[in-house]
Amino acid sequence: MIAGFLLTAYAALSLIVTTSLSSPKPIIIDTDIYSDVDDVGSLAVANVLHNCGLADLRGVVINERSKYGALAANTINTYFLNGDIPIGAIRPLSDDTFFDKYRYLDSLGSAQDNSITIISIGFLTNIAELLESPPDQHSSSNGRELISSKVKELVVMGGTYPAGWEFNFGGLDPASTKAVVENWPANVAITYSGAELGGGIYSGYLLPTHSPPNSPILAAYQWYVGRGSTVRESWDPVTTLYGILGLDGFQKLGFKAPLVFANSIGYNSVLDNGTNSWVYDSKVTNQHWLELADGVTNSTVSFLLDQFLVHNPLDSRCI
Ligand SMILES: *[C@@H]1O[C@H](CO)[C@@H](O)[C@H](O)[C@H]1NC(C)=O
Ligand SMILES: *[C@@H]1O[C@H](CO)[C@@H](O)[C@H](O)[C@H]1NC(C)=O
Ligand SMILES: [Ca+2]
């Protein structure tokens, strides 16, 4: 089966045309990087696309309480020669809650209007707090105004579509989920990548055979998945891929667009326990959830993700 999908995918690769690359897309990644290895996969995707000029990774913000989150993110960035990318850490390094508002204010405040894509691949704790944060010495705008003016799109791995319960929404901090989903500014796009999308796309097949020596990506997948396997669902990596390439950017990699919006109208609704459901309402058009495009198989997306997971940091091509 794996051989079959590799063949199909290699056929797709052979069609790659060289296109001039547009300017890198500015992104911030907000990650929990503790409960699953797919956050590691996401940072690999982001670093490779940063190094090949499609993304501008402005910062990584950690949204869980472990003192190891920032260290883990920095290990991956450093492996890809991007150890200088700012990371919002829990300070002091302890398991206390801490929201590194300064990191967000700094990254957003210095950004051009309507330019930043925030990719949320964990809990919505930081973003909820940012939405409610008042002006202070770091910023004369409040958090909501800053989001409204600087953020182009919030891409969220969370929820199940059209309805269900999922861990990022309901696991640790459903109150923040509700706050973000209900209070997100109407002028800024918000796009959801649900449990069902990434949960149906496995990746990591090529890690044991194609990784550079000492790859922390390989090590993370080996340790996490265990029992000799490195294959894992791709919730966060698929979300990150969309966050960087959008619906149309895949052509730059020689792939036809694998993702589409599943809806054109309506909004996400969240209960106190994080259970979500879609409400169709023609007055709301800034909210979408993602699904695979017609005729696209999970194998194609899996193959593309694997190229990033095994990518040699010294190779500045995208794939
Ligand atoms: C694709 O989906 C099928 C059916 O759910 C599953 O058995 C298979 O493992 C998936 N393959 C990949 C590469 O994700
Ligand atoms: C969430 O709350 C709703 C409404 O109270 C309930 O029907 C549902 O079973 C709950 N879901 C979970 C996973 O607890
Ligand atoms: Ca995650």
From TrEMBL:
InterPro entries per record: Inosine/uridine_hydrolase_dom, Ribo_hydro-like
Keyword vocabulary terms for this entry: Signal
Domain Inosine/uridine-preferring nucleoside hydrolase span(s) in chain numbering: 27-186
Top-level lineage group: Eukaryota
SUPFAM superfamilies: Nucleoside hydrolase
Segment forming the signal sequence: 1-22
Family named by the database record: Belongs to the IUNH family.
Protein name: Inosine-uridine nucleoside n-ribohydrolase
